[in-house]
Amino acid sequence: MTVNLPIGLVVARMLAVIPIVLLLQTGDERSATWAFLIFCLAALTDAVDGRLARRLGQVTRLGTFLDPLADKLLVIGTLIPLQAAGLVPAWVVVVVVRELAVTNLRAVASARGYSVGASVAGKVKTILQTGAAAGLLLLLAAPSLPLAFAAYTLLSAAVALTLLSGIDYLWKASFAIAGRGVPERWRIAPRNGTARTRAR
Question: N or C: which end of the chain has fewer CB within 10 A?
């Protein structure tokens, strides 16, 4: 297993869920403020690790798998205690958890030589999910009506795009899983006899 700085940032993003969950269990505004700050710091690593991996020439298959998984775990791990606090409906968490199924489908497609990359809707969805989770954490720390409106607007948009992008991923992945003809643009170009991945 190859471990480098970009992957270290990805792992740190995944581990950030632990203090966020523990802080939210206390239920006070000060802990919610710390949870918000940790979440934002962890989310910012997603804007750094990919560029750093490409600049250092450290793009790896492990990073390719862990990076989207870390994003999903950070959001899901934050939404679950927020749901327990009564800020998020349970069905919303269930919809977002489908992200883990998408990650598995992308891994299966990649193993068969096909790249099911993130669509525009998928990328925007990730931004909206992250923004919504951050907004809800801030709402827990500093309740206000305008902030609640903004946070739930982001959450509604995120849920809608989560459903749409999920259908898109399922359609694309079905080609590789069912063994049907796959459009050439989704094929991973071979390099030295192995599949080449484009993500980190």
Answer: N
Amino acid in the structure at residue 113: G
Integer CA distances (angstroms), 169 to 98, 104, 111, 161, 164, in order: 11, 11, 16, 12, 9
First CA to last CA distance, the chain: 14
* pLDDT tens, the chain, 200 aa long: 556 888 888 899 999 999 999 999 988 899 999 999 999 999 999 888 877 878 877 777 777 778 888 888 999 999 999 999 999 999 999 888 876 766 666 666 555 555 555 567 777 888 999 999 999 999 999 999 999 999 999 999 999 988 887 776 666 666 655 555 455 554 444 434 334 333 33
